[in-house]
Description:
Blueprint: H1 14-38, H2 50-57, H3 61-74, E1 77-80, E2 83-86, H4 91-94, H5 103-113, H6 117-126, H7 139-166, E3 176-180, H8 186-194, E4 199-204, H9 206-212, E5 222-226, E6 238-244, H10 253-263, E7 264-274, E8 276-277, H11 285-290, H12 292-298, E9 303-304, H13 307-314, E10 318-327, E11 330-338
Parallel strand pairs: 3-4, 3-6, 4-5, 6-7, 8-9
Antiparallel strand pairs: 1-2, 7-11, 10-11
Helix pairs in contact: 1-3, 1-5, 2-3, 5-7, 7-8, 7-9, 10-13
Amino acid sequence: MAIAVAPAARYGSDAQYRLFDLLTAPLRWEVLAVALELGIFDDLATPRTAGELAQQYVLDGEGTELLLNALVSLGVVGKQEGGYCVDGGFAPLLTSTSDVSMSSLLTYLGEVRHVSADNIIALLRDKQQVQTGPEMVRPEYWSRAVRGLRSFHHSIRNPIVMDILSGLPCWPDVKKLLDLGAGSESLAQDICAARPDIDTVIFDLPGVVDNLKRRIADDARIKLRGGDMNCDDLGTGYDLIWASMVFYYARDLTSVMGRIRRALRPGGVLISFHEELNDDRTAPEFHVLGRLHAELKSGPLSVERGCVRAAAAEAGFLNVQSFSLETPFGQMELVIGTA
Length: 339
């Protein structure tokens, strides 16, 4: 006798779906990280079989096919008639030779952000006794970070920044600009390319500045200043100061804002581009989780919502405004004030 079956379209609760999604999430990254580490994406610009790649990389053939199938499940690689090829939308981001490649950036951020459950427990019990990856509050960390930041700036951030800057009413009149806590020379070079009449000063920790000297040696329009924004001379007479994700290191944010205001000429403009957390420090998830590893080691780093705007107003900036922006690297807050 036939049995009538009318299955539901969807079983289980939203919470159950969420928990299984969380269970799978780390595997998504690990599969991608393995492909980046091996450099497989560089060889998938044209269709290749699993056997061909296994032979080239001296890997197990069956395992290579499993890995490639997993990459297909992630949507970054396509499969057709046994041949694998990186998806067209991901190709420029995942191949190492592309101008907008994120391959080294993703690997670097994986090192900075990810931490094992065992290490989280160890950090919770005694963070002084645990060494897990680079530490953001140490200058030597930034020396290692310059390469990763350069990739981030060049491939993702700078196009957003240049769109913001070029849309400012004051932009045509800017002749001297400070990139505070630049992290790389990338933005300064993009500004010089778009506006050859602007002199740009990069201010950052001495370890970062040392890493940048060779990169800008031939460009007289870019100057370097090494120091601590909390106490060292920022220079003067700037038309615009750009500060991107740098205020984690302000010991007294209002005091630093005062130093920035005095470095600007009268009427000069500060632009802060920073992530901010809600009042409970529980959202947005991208920033809360992304900073967890660093904050377990060093204490809270991210600033809370409205903190930058309030400090700028308290330091004497006029017409302080803020705007929320959605970006591939999370929601960002743009704060603009006039000296």
